[in-house]
């Protein structure tokens, strides 16, 4: 039975790597997580965002403005953004794949938007019904209009370490898509392992390839935990200097277009690892676990975070040793 780790000095694992002193966690549970779960009430989604706002997170991806025909779980995102209680210092972002979605996001007073491309032709056609080239062409006016409206734009790339339809994806293809998104105006590129097939060395190779076109300080990582490699992959990314991590409370999610893909890496598990490495995140682990338990109960599912499952027993043991 493990005791919660005390913070340790931030030291490189060897002479080659220097871990970042602080990491920003982008909480994607309310969007990327819930879009692949059973539908819950708008009030529960609002409560989720409000509760996450008080954990120390500085960015919460709270919804998406997409056609309800494709993602019905996100149909009420506009109402959600109008009703959440915003906390100072927290950015509330949304996915907006087209100009219609962008205009709806602006009307709902979204703080930041994201666009979602792919490194896989097959996945791009399944996900957004067009080729990679066409998708980038369609995103260009969205980014231009968003920036004109004063909204920062974040870019996602899916299937960076493998595709459910094509298998291996060339890391050079990932790099070129990242370069195009940055040139378009995205201030940050989030590299997604959509089906969770990546391993640490593959992660390093992919990030090294992308960093030839986009500097590491403008990269984030987004891992699903299908094969149990997400934390190891995140650690590999940290060793290369990546300091922004996407994760979902309670390990929510999957991918509606990638059968068999499990949820995002759990935010609780990421925070626990960062604490053990002596890396600051600003997130209160106990409060985050409480939020994960809340949304898991509403979804009538078990909490997907290993840390949340172990936490009560570990806390009890810790207290008995004090």
From TrEMBL:
SUPFAM superfamilies tied to this protein: Aldolase (SSF51569)
Pathway terms, separated by semicolons: Metabolic intermediate metabolism; (S)-3-hydroxy-3-methylglutaryl-CoA degradation; acetoacetate from (S)-3-hydroxy-3-methylglutaryl-CoA: step 1/1
Single GO MF annotation: metal ion binding
Span of domain Pyruvate carboxyltransferase: 23-289
Record GO biological process: ketone body biosynthetic process; L-leucine catabolic process
Record InterPro entries: Aldolase_TIM, HMGL, PYR_CT
Pfam families: HMGL-like
UniProt keyword annotations, A-Z: Lyase, Metal-binding
EC annotation from Swiss-Prot or TrEMBL: 4.1.3.4
Family the entry assigns: Belongs to the HMG-CoA lyase family.
Name of the protein described by the UniProt record: hydroxymethylglutaryl-CoA lyase
Species the sequence originates in: Moritella marina ATCC 15381
Highest classification ranks of the organism: Bacteria, Pseudomonadati, Pseudomonadota, Gammaproteobacteria, Alteromonadales
């Amino acid at each position: 039975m493990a005791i919660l780790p005390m913070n340790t000095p931030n030291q490189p694992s060897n002479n080659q790597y220097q871990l970042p002193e602080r990491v920003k966690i982008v909480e994607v549970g309310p969007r990327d997580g819930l879009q692949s779960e059973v539908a819950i009430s708008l009030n529960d989604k609002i409560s989720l965002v409000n509760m996450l706002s008080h954990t120390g997170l500085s960015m919460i991806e709270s919804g998406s403005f997409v056609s309800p025909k494709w993602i019905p779980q996100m149909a009420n995102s506009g109402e959600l953004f109008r009703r959440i209680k915003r906390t100072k210092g927290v950015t509330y972002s949304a996915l907006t794949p087209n100009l219609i979605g962008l205009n709806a996001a602006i009307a709902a007073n979204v703080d930041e938007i994201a666009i979602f491309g792919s490194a896989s032709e097959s996945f791009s056609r399944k996900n957004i019904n067009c080729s990679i080239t066409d998708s980038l062409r369609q995103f260009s006016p969205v980014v231009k209009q968003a920036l004109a409206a004063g909204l920062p734009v974040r870019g996602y790339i899916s299937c960076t370490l493998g595709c459910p339809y094509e298998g291996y994806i060339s890391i050079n293809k990932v790099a070129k898509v990242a370069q195009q998104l940055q040139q378009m105006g995205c201030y940050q590129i989030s590299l997604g392992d959509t089906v969770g097939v990546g391993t640490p060395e593959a992660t390093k190779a992919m990030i090294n390839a992308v960093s030839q076109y986009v500097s590491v300080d403008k990269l984030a990582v987004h891992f699903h935990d299908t094969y149990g490699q997400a934390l190891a992959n995140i650690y590999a990314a940290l060793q290369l200097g990546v300091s922004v991590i996407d994760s979902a409370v309670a390990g929510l999610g999957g991918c509606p277009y990638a059968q068999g893909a499990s949820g995002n890496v759990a935010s609780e598990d990421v925070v626990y690892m960062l604490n053990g490495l002596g890396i600051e995140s600003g997130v209160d682990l106990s409060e985050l676990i409480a939020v994960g338990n809340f949304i898991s109960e509403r979804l009538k599912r078990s909490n997907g975070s290993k840390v949340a499952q172990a936490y009560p027993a570990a806390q009890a043991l810790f207290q008995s040793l004090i």
